[in-house]
Write a structure and sequence with these properties.
Length: 473
């Protein structure tokens, strides 16, 4: 078929070139954004007197009808068109004739696609934020239920000091909270409208860019037309934030995988989120956690692809930018799926509390507290460190925990030990005396949980107006 831009050309595009150049197979995702942007544009053209009010109403009404038909499945987005913009305009012209040809007044496909991508990503930012909020609620629920569930804290994957499960989960709460904060930052930084930038140098028509921006819920128009059509920083930021989310999910998944092993047995994953082996009947595999861990590289790849695409592009728009879409769509779908599945897995996971506490005891996580006990009884720290080192070696040889020794055995290591050592090195004491904000002690954790609840009670998205309802009325 003849192209909307075909006037300059004397022969048809080679079909292989056409297919290589076409983007409708993936930018049809933008059908709603493209039509909403067209409605806002044509309303502004009517307001400015560039179109008559009757023409603006006729075009706007026709596009709303097309949008409804696409969503009902009665209007199919055909791949015979080069891109979603061509499809919308061609169908409009077919239905309205010459009036439909006026839609593109004062507009370029360059600022159209910039608008469509920005509207699409802005919505995806909101959806990612909502999924993160759901995950944070699940993490907080585990925290509230486990302020007295003792477990080993690790450094170098070696048991280090006792903490609580609430405290351990609190670290992930902070990670995913920062991820949400990045969503809010990205939303506000990207929330400027490129429509009206034209191909790169604006237009001679008396457009009201503030009006179109306001219609679509933007804070205002972009302030440089060349940057307006060629900026993909917001997309790079979003992919970077998605990569960070996946990194956090992957770290969490790694721990779930370790904790699910026979050697640890800290958790039992619900049957709905694990699978068996085709040959080994005893197996219960943490497949969801492993897939989340594995898909992290896929999202990193999208970020690196876009960074590489953008690094050598001169101003303003270049066709290279068409490569910003497919990998981005895949990354978004991947992260959203991983967040939803991980939240479900965490919400149904059972924690083996006795096993966790026993692991903390037999991992000598209270050794530092034993050394502190000696220091508080006048032993120089370096000497105390050596004494407790010998004590741990003795326990390893006997395959017991420090708590399991009797006072006579302890005194053989150091006569400074007295009966109160047992209380000093109990898991409860080791944790509860750490009361500074951010530490695992119960009072400190209760304070943090209250703060986290307060954070979740205020949703930044509530302040965002429902511009779509107003636009489509």
């Amino acid at each position: 078929m003849a192209q909307l831009w075909g006037g300059r050309f004397t022969k048809e595009t080679d079909q292989l070139v056409y297919r290589f150049n076409a983007s409708i197979s993936f930018d049809k995702k933008f059908y709603r954004q493209d039509m909403e942007g067209s409605i806002a544009h044509v309303k502004m053209l009517g307001k400015q007197g560039i179109l008559t009010e009757a023409e603006a109403r006729e075009i706007s009404s026709a596009i709303k009808g097309m949008l409804q038909e696409v969503e009902e499945g009665t209007l199919e987005i055909s791949h015979e068109y080069e891109d979603i913009h061509s499809f919308v305009e061609a169908v409009l012209i077919e239905r309205l004739g010459d009036v439909g040809k006026k839609l593109h007044t004062g507009r370029s496909r360059n600022d159209q696609v910039a608008l469509d991508m920005r509207l699409y990503i802005r919505q995806e930012v909101l959806e990612a934020d909502s999924l993160l909020e759901g995950l944070l609620q699940a993490v907080l629920a585990v925290m509230e239920e486990n302020t007295d569930t003792f477990m080993p804290g690790f450094t170098h994957l070696q048991k280090a000091q006792p903490v609580t499960l609430a405290h351990h989960m609190g670290a992930y709460f902070e990670m995913f909270k920062r991820d949400r904060q990045r969503m809010e930052d990205i939303y506000h930084r990207m929330n400027y409208c490129p429509l009206g930038s034209g191909a790169l140098a604006g237009t001679t028509y008396d457009l009201d860019r503030y009006d179109t921006a306001a219609q679509m819920g933007f804070a205002g128009p972009t302030l440089n037309s060349m940057d307006g059509v060629s900026d993909r920083d917001y997309l790079i930021e979003f992919l970077s934030a998605l990569s960070t989310i996946m990194m956090h999910l992957s770290r969490f998944s790694e721990e779930v995988i370790i904790w699910n092993s026979n050697e640890y047995q800290f958790v039992e994953i619900d049957d709905a989120y694990s699978t068996g082996s085709s040959i080994m009947p005893q197996k219960k595999n943490p497949d969801i956690a492993e897939l989340v861990r594995g898909k992290t590289g896929r999202v990193y790849g999208a970020l690196m692809s876009l960074l590489t695409t953008m690094k050598g592009i001169p101003l303003a728009y270049n066709k290279d930018m068409q490569e910003d879409k497919e990998l981005t769509f895949d990354a978004i779908d991947t992260v959203k799926g991983c967040l939803a599945l991980f939240t479900g897995m965490l919400s149904t996971m059972k924690f083996q509390k006795d096993r966790m506490e026993a692991s903390a005891k037999h991992g000598f996580t209270n050794a530092t507290d034993a050394a502190d006990y000696l220091v508080n009884h006048g032993v120089p720290f370096r000497d105390a460190h050596g004494i407790v080192g010998k004590l741990v070696l003795y326990c390893i040889e006997k395959n017991v925990a420090i708590d399991d020794l009797d006072l006579e055995e302890l005194k053989q290591i150091s006569p400074v030990f007295e009966k109160d050592i047992f209380e000093a090195v109990s898991m409860e004491t080791c944790v509860e005396k750490r009361l500074t904000i951010g530490a695992p002690g119960q009072k400190a954790m209760e304070q943090v949980i209250a703060l986290e609840k307060g954070y979740l009670s205020h949703d930044w998205k509530e302040s965002i107006a429902d511009w779509e309802t107003q636009l489509l009325e």
